[in-house]
Amino acid sequence: MAIRPYIVGNWKMNGTRAMLSEARAIDRAAQRYMKVEVAVAPPYTLIHAVHREAEQIGVGAQDCHPGNEGAHTGDICASMIADAGAKFVILGHSERRQDHGETNKLVNAKIESALDAGLRVILCCGETLETRDAGDAEDFVLRQLKVALPAFADPSERLTIAYEPIWAIGTGRTATVEDIAAMHGAIRKLLDETYGEEASSGVRILYGGSVKPENAREILSTPEVGGALVGGASLSAESFLGIVVAASESEDA
After folding, report:
1. Which residues are catalytic, by number?
2. How far is C-alpha 75 from the geometric centre of its chain's CA atoms?
3. CA 181, CA 211: separation in Å to the nearest integer?
């Protein structure tokens, strides 16, 4: 059975209750594009509110603490975000790694905690411009994944990978289709080696490098690209839905 493209909006540190109108518009429109799985990850403060609005789209969180509870002021654990209505969590995002010094081992611990709480996981990976220019991009990304990947028998229902070339986000440089295909192919090979081809075949690999309505169809038609992790373009229902439409059209092509 074909796996639906997965288009996920990461709102990052954006959004107040005024943004619920955008969430409603995304949700209502997504009902017309059932060939595409659509989701958004608002800030913690809006998870419950967006969950109440959503009839079709998935709702997730942008991070969680690796522990279950305790004296961790300002942190939120996986069971808390699940209780608020989240069904998935984004972990290992480049901004968490850069701004908060998150290591691959810490990301792995967060993943295990999220899975224990019944959440699906979007595991992010990606390299900097310096790493790519040094010719070490593929090895770097695979090293990230080898440490962070969870150990379980069937990852297809619980795990998604998101490749985000940091050098192609807001820099004016763009990854070519060849760049994307090569990295996604390398990630797919690692997943096959780690979980077996049958078990890993249901794991979608998203692309997350400045995806917009204008470039979405070409990116989503690239081999092994199973969807997109969308940043700034997900803050507007109009632009985000342009990517959803592109995903639907790529399925029809």
Report:
1. 93, 164
2. 21
3. 15
